[in-house]
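Researcher: Here's a chain I'd like modeled. Treat it as a single chain, no partners, no ligands.
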Amino acid sequence: MFMYLAKTRGTYEKVKPAMVKNILNDHIVGGKPFKKAASKEDYYTTLEKQTRVALAHGARSTPKILMTIFKSVAMNL
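Model: Modeled as a single isolated chain. Structure tokens:
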């Protein structure tokens, strides 16, 4: 079993296959996030403000089901 404890928290967006090697070398090996694909500074702040909804069958949800959920969440804001 191998566990890696990162020194810096990092989330990457819009990662292309060609970027993976750079992310591994810069962040995992070098300890510094790969800036080209790293999320913006406020990523986690924005994420914490969001209401999360988990669906049991998310891939099979219909637009009607999703609208019902969104309306329900909006009413509770």
